[in-house]
Write a structure and sequence with these properties.
The protein has 171 residues and is mainly beta. It has one domain: Metal Binding Protein, Guanine Nucleotide Exchange Factor, Chain A (Beta Complex), CATH 2.170.150. The chain is built from one helix and ten strands, in the order βββαβββββββ. The strands form two sheets. The chain has an eight-stranded mixed beta sheet. A two-stranded antiparallel sheet has the order 1-2. A hairpin with a 5-residue loop joins strand 5 and strand 6. The C terminus is likely disordered. This is CENP-V/GFA domain-containing protein.
């Protein structure tokens, strides 16, 4: 799948023809980050990003003490991906990807939804159940949000991945 920022200066191809999961998150943090009623994230295996001087990184602490790396285009400001060290997946902001099947989107933190969730959609009042995803929230310390869950626990890396960390491939 092809992904690009709004201005098209940062582009890449996803490592799989479809995401491992597609989340529509209604938590406070995702709404603020997206400046919208919800955030959307497509989960893919970790891969090396294209070398681009326009790809910049904002880092913030999570409620678990980890660092969340948030990548964006310096030219147009589009947030493109999120990465947490020691996980073998990354979260690509779904609006950047062409050709996603939105009928498979999983709505999480639905109790905070500001817009109706499509009838028949898989949705959860809070984060997905532990059988689907039980990773730690991405909320900032002291945040009123319960968190956003956009990287499945069962796909967490153990630190032995041979793929270069996304946050190390960009300056």
């Amino acid at each position: 799948m092809e992904a690009a920022c709004q201005c098209g200066a940062v582009r890449f191809t996803t490592p799989l023809p479809s995401p491992l999961a597609l989340y529509v998150c209604h938590c406070d943090d995702c709404r603020r980050q997206a400046s919208s009623a919800f955030g959307s994230s497509a989960i893919f295996p970790r891969f090396n990003l294209p070398d681009s001087e326009l790809l910049s990184c904002y880092r913030r602490p999570t409620s678990t003490g980890q660092t969340l790396y948030c990548y964006f285009c310096r030219n147009c400001g589009t947030r493109m991906l999120h990465s947490v060290p020691n996980k073998n997946v990354i979260s690509i902001k779904a609006g950047c990807i062409q050709g996603l099947d939105w009928t498979k989107a999983i709505h999480i933190w639905a109790k905070n939804a500001m817009v109706p969730i499509p009838e028949g959609s898989e949705s959860y009042t809070y984060g997905p159940p532990s059988s689907r995803n039980s990773c730690a929230a991405y909320s900032s310390p002291g945040s009123s949000s319960e968190g956003s869950y956009d990287q499945p626990d069962e796909l967490m890396g153990n630190g032995s991945c041979h793929v270069q960390d996304v946050h190390e491939s960009t300056k």
